[in-house]
């Protein structure tokens, strides 16, 4: 009697394992490739550059979250490191900039070719902004010169005034 129980248990476990293995995997379809996101992925690595007044600045890019987002860590001289996350959204790119000014502006760049020379990010909204006139990043223009050089032009908006900050980068050689 005891061996029949063990045999029955083995049969039930075998059937359960077979049924589990036969279940379809619940994978999210990737969708069509996003050329703008592919263009951004070319930045993966570490870069050195200069900002306003020739001050040194470091920037690094890495692919995260199973390849669904690109993380940027920007370290201007004398400022805390800031993080910007880029992710595809249909054929556009959505980005959130975690600014040292304690707010998080979101911007969108419309679709571009994978060999585009520029990606132009326009303001969508901003979290943790105390008033609409409070200072925040409002625009970003990425310009790709060649595989080892690019620049960023950030626009800071406070009240009705805008100020531009430009950074030029060269890929760090190992």
Protein topology:
Layout: H1 2-22, H2 35-41, E1 45-50, E2 56-64, E3 69-76, E4 82-89, E5 92-98, E6 104-109, E7 118-127, E8 136-146, E9 149-158, E10 161-171
Antiparallel strand pairs: 1-2, 1-10, 2-3, 3-4, 4-5, 5-6, 6-7, 7-8, 8-9, 9-10
Low-confidence stretches at least 5 residues in length (pLDDT < 50)?
8-13, 19-26
Terminus-to-terminus distance: 70 Å
Number of strands: 10
- Could you report the average pLDDT, rounded to the nearest whole number? 87
Q: N-to-C SSE series?
A: HHEEEEEEEEEE
Helix/sheet category: alpha+beta
Q: Overall 3D geometry?
A: globular
Q: Strand sequence of the main sheet, in spatial order?
A: 1-2-3-4-5-6-7-8-9-10
**CATH topology heading:** Lipocalin
Supply the CATH class: Mainly Beta
Largest sheet: 10 strands, antiparallel, barrel
Q: Quote the beta fraction.
A: over 45%
Computed over alpha carbons, the radius of gyration is 24 Å
Q: What is the share of helical residues?
A: 10-25%
How many discrete structural domains? 1
**Tally of separate helices:** 2
